[in-house]
Amino acid sequence: MDFLRPTTWADALAAKAERPEATPIQGGTDVMVEINLDKGRPAALLDLNPVAELRDWSSEDGWLRIGAGVSYTRLIDELGDRLPGLAQASRTVGSPQIRNRGTVAGNLGAASPAGDSHPPLLASDALVEAESVRGSRLIPIGEFYLGVKRNALEPDELIRAVRVPYADGPQYFSKIGTRNAMVIAVCSFAVALHPSRRGVGTGIGSAAPTPRRAPEAEEFLAGELDWDGRTAVPDETARRFGELVARAASPIDDVRGTRDYRVHALAVMARRTLGWAWTEYRGI
Amino acid sequence: MSIATGQVQGVGQSLLRPDGTLKVTGEFAYSSDLWLDGMLWGATLRSPHPSAWIRSIDVGPALAMPGVFAVLTHQDVPGVKFYGLEHKDQPVLAIDQVRYQGEPVALVAADHPETARRAADAIVVGYELREAVTDPRQAAFDPACPQVNPHGNVVRHQPVRVGDRFTADVVVTAEYEVGMQDQAFLGPESGLAVPAEDGGVDLYVATQWLHVDQDQVAPCLGLPKEKVRLTLAGVGGAFGAREDLSMQIHASMLALRTGKPIKIVYGREESFFGHVHRHPAWMRYEHGATADGMLVYVRAEIVLDGGAYTSSSPAVVGNAASLGVGPYEVDNVWIDAYGTYTNNPPCGAMRGFGAVQACFAYESQMDRLAEACGLSPVEIRIRNAVSQGSRLATGQVVDTPAPLAGMLRELAAMPLPGPGSTDLRALPGGVAQTTHGEGVRRGIGYGVGIKNICFSEGFDDYSTARVRVELLGGEPHVLVHTAAAEVGQGLIMVKSQIARTELGIDRVTIVPADTTVGSAGSSSASRQSYVTGGAVKAACEAVRERLDKLRAGGASLAEVLAAGPVEETREYRHRPTFPMDPVTGQGDSHTQLALCVHRAVVDVDVELGLVKVVELAAVQDVGRIMNPLALEGQIHGGTAQGLGLALMEEIQVRDGKVLNPSFTDYLIPTILDMPPMRLSILENPDPHAPYGLRGAGEPPTLSSTPAIAAAVRNATGLALARVPIRPDDIALAGSALAG
C-alpha cells in the first residue's frame, strides 16, 4: 500500500489524477476502521492532512464554504449558530476524539447511508464542491449519493469543500441509537424550514440504500403550514407529515434494528422535529 | 511486636491503585504490548462455519509465502490434542470437524503480523457443511436432534426437589429469556511464548488463573508441568472471559516449532470468537403464593446454552439450580436446570456465572407476584426474604448474617431523584435528540440477587501466599508473592494492605504473579480477597509468629532481620463445600453467600423505546470493607455490566453465526448511559472469612439487571420478559402507549 502525502491542494489533485484508485484520508475515522477490519485494502492512501487550505472555512453571499479538513468539533464550535441542523448532527458523531478528527467531507466520501451529516445536508440543499485537475464543479447534495457507499465523485476528483446556505429558519436533527452516546444511527432524520421560500427540507438517514429526502412530505408540509399566521400545526398534519416521511424510506432488518422499528421511529422523529421547528418559528 | 505503623495504608483504607494512572494515561503495559527482538507473530485460522466436516487442509500456499516460518494443524499438536476446564473436550486445533464458527483450525508464524494473517487466509480448507444445531431446547429435548457432543447434547441436568405442595391460591407463570452477553474486556487475548533452553516454554499471558493454564497447556505440549512456566502479563479486564485458554497452547506450539518467541494478539473481531460468552437462557417459572404474598412453591425450568464445548457449563448449571429461587424462603421447589451443547458460540464463565440468568427470571416473577397479590415490589420481597438461619432450596442453612429485609427497607427509604432535566444528555436518546420530553415516562424498579462466593460443590478451593520480611537499605520490607491474577479488580492493593496491617511494616512489594509459587486459584467467583487474602494473612501471621519469637529477648526488628530474612508460605482453604445431590439438588454446595439489592429509576421514551437510567441505588453487605475506593468501583462496574445486559449488550447469533463481532455493534454502556449511584455498604461480618469479608465483585451484576427491567416495565406497563430490552419491544408493543 502506497502512502501519498501531498502538501498543497494542487499536488493533491495531481496525485489523485495520477492515482485515481488512491483512497483519500483526512481524519481516518472511517478509512482506518475499514482497513483495520481488513475490508478491502486500498492500493494507496492519499493523506490530505498536510493540505492547509482544506482546514479553512469562509462565508459568502449567505453560504458557508466548509473546507474538507474542518473537523466536526470546529464545525460545532465555529459554525453551529449558522448551521444548527448540521451542528446537531455533528454532535452525535462518535466520541469527542472522533469529532476532533472526523469531517463532513469524510462522511460524504464514505457515503455510508448511516453517516450523520447527510440528513441535514439534504434538508438544507447543500452543494458538494468537487475538484480535479480538469476543473471544479458543484454537485447538488440530492444527486451526490448513488448507492450504498457510492457517491457521484469521478475517480480523479476530490472533495474540496461543502457549501451550505445559512439556516434561514429552524433546523432540527434527530437520531436513534440503542445507547445514549457514541452510536451508529439506527435511523435518523433532519428537518429544515425555509420560510423565505415557504419551503421544507428533509433528510432521512440509515433507512434506505442512500441518504434521501422525503419530497412528498416536504411538499405536503410546505403547503399546510400557516407561514404568515404562524398558527399551531394541527395534530393531523404533523401525523401525516410523519407518515409521508416514513413512506419515503425503504429500510431493512439488520443487526442495528428492524425495518418496522425504523419506519415507526422515522414517523415519530419527523413529527417531533416538526413540532420543535414550528415552535421555534412561532417564537414561543 | 508492635503494630504502630502499617495502619496508614492498611485494611480498610482507600488506596489509589498503582496501575490506575498508568491505565488512564495509556502507559500501562498490557499483554498486547509485550515485545522481544527476533520474535515472530502468530495468527489463527478459524472456521467460518458453525458445523462442518473438514475433508482437507492444504497448508502449502501459506508455507510458500515469504516471511512464513511455520504452519501448524492438529497433526502438529505435540501432546494431548484436547483441553478444557472441566472436561477435556475442546481440540487444540480442529480435528476432522468444526463445531462452532470461529473454532481454530490452523496456526501460522510469520515475521510480520499481517504476513501471518494473509498466510492464514491462504490455507485452503475443504469443508463439507452440515446442519448446525442451534436451538438449545431442541438439542436437549428432541431425541431426533443430531448430537453435537459424543456424550449427548445435555452437559448437565441438575434438578432441585424440595417438598410436595405445588398448588397455591395465587399462581403466576411466565417464560423469560436472557440474551448472550459478552464480557467485552478492552484488552484482547494476547501474550508471548518464549522457547527455553531446557526444551520448555516461558509464557507471558493475560489470564485469570496461571496454574490452571499450566495444567492445561503442558499436556498438550507433551511437556512436564515444570517446563511450562507462566508469568502474568498486564491484563486488560477479564470478567470470566480469561478462564478458558485462548492463545496459550497455540503460541507455545509455534514457539517450540520455530525456536523463536511468538507473540499472538487477537484483533477485536477475533476476540469475539476467542473467548466464551455468558450463557443465553430460556426459563419457564411458576410461582405459587398465599393471597398475602407468602411463597408456597417455585417451579422452574432453566435451559442454558453452552454452545459447542463444555467450558464451565456444568458449574454454571449448578449455580442456576442452587440459586434458582433467589434469596427467598420457599418450602416447595421443583427446578430443572440444563446446560446444552449446540453449534452456537461456546459459553462459560462471566461475572455472575449462572446466577445472573436465574436472577432476572425470579425477580421478574416476584414483581408479577406482587402485582397479583396487591403488594408493593419491596413488600413482597421483605415478606419472603431469607435471613440468618433460613434454609435455601438446596437445604443449605444460611449460617452467617443475611439481613435482606433490612437492606430492602434501607433501599426503599433512600431519597428518589428529582424530575428529569431538560438537558439532552439527561433524556432518553441523549444528544441524538430524539425527545425534548415527549413520550417520556418515569419508572422505578427493584432487584435482589444472591451470589455464591468462591468455588462451590466440593471443589478443593485454595490459594497460596509466600511472605518474606527482610532488610532492604536498612529498612524492614515485606515481599508478598502469590500467583493470583490481578485483572483490574485491585487485588494487589488488598494484598499490600493485609501485609501492612498484619506485619506493621509500611514498605510492601507485591511480586509479579507467576507459577514459581503455589496456585492461587482463579480470579473468579469474587473469591480472591477471600482466599488469596486469607493466604496472605495466614503467611503474614506465620512470619509474625517467628519474628515475635526471635524478638522475645527484646531485640528490634532490624536487629532480628540483620541475621537474614524471615519467610513463610501458607495455603489457605475456605470451609469445604459439597456436591449437590444429582437427584434432589440437596447439599451444602456453597461456602459463602452474598447479597446485593438495587433500585433503578428510569425515564423511558415509550414511543421510541429508548431508555435513560436516571439513578441506580444499591445496598450491599460486604462483611468488611477492605478498600472503600476499590469496593465502590467494583459495585459501580458490576452495576454497569448489569445495566448493559438489561438494555443493550447482546451477541446476536443467527444460524450459529455471530452478527455483531465489533464494538460498533456490540454496545456497552458509556458514561452517558451509566447514571450516578447512591450506595450503602454494610459490614455484617462472616465469621468464617478473613476479616469477616464477603466477596463483592459479582453480586451487583445480578440485581441491577432485574431492577432496571422492572423500572422499564413500571414506566411502560409492558411485560418485557426478555433482556436486553430492545427499542422494538417497547415502541412496537402497541399504539395504546403513544402520547
Automatic annotation (TrEMBL), chain A:
Which residue stretches, if any, does this entry annotate as coiled coil? none
Q: Signal sequence: where? A: none
Where does the source fall among the domains of life? Answer: Bacteria
Q: Identify one Pfam family in the record.
A: FAD_binding_5
- Mind listing the GO molecular function terms for this protein? FAD binding; oxidoreductase activity
Q: Which UniProt keywords apply?
A: FAD, Flavoprotein, Oxidoreductase
Task: Tell me which residues make up the FAD-binding PCMH-type domain.
Answer: 1-169
The record's listing under InterPro entries reads: CO_DH_flav_C (IPR005107), CO_DH_flav_C_dom_sf (IPR036683), Diverse_Substr_Oxidored (IPR051312), FAD-bd_PCMH (IPR016166), FAD-bd_PCMH-like_sf (IPR036318), FAD-bd_PCMH_sub1 (IPR016167), FAD-bd_PCMH_sub2 (IPR016169), Mopterin_DH_FAD-bd (IPR002346)
Protein known as: Carbon-monoxide dehydrogenase medium subunit
UniProtKB/TrEMBL annotation, chain B:
Show the Gene3D superfamilies listed in the entry.
Aldehyde oxidase/xanthine dehydrogenase, a/b hammerhead, Aldehyde oxidase/xanthine dehydrogenase, molybdopterin binding domain
Q: Known Pfam families for this protein?
A: Ald_Xan_dh_C, MoCoBD_1, MoCoBD_2
Coiled coil spans:
none
Q: Which residues form the Aldehyde oxidase/xanthine dehydrogenase a/b hammerhead domain?
A: 25-131
SUPFAM superfamilies, per this entry? CO dehydrogenase molybdoprotein N-domain-like, Molybdenum cofactor-binding domain
Family matches, as SMART domains: Ald_Xan_dh_C
Q: Which GO terms describe its molecular function?
A: iron ion binding; oxidoreductase activity
Protein name as catalogued: Carbon-monoxide dehydrogenase large subunit
Origin organism is Acrocarpospora corrugata
Its taxonomic path starts at:
Bacteria, Bacillati, Actinomycetota, Actinomycetes, Streptosporangiales
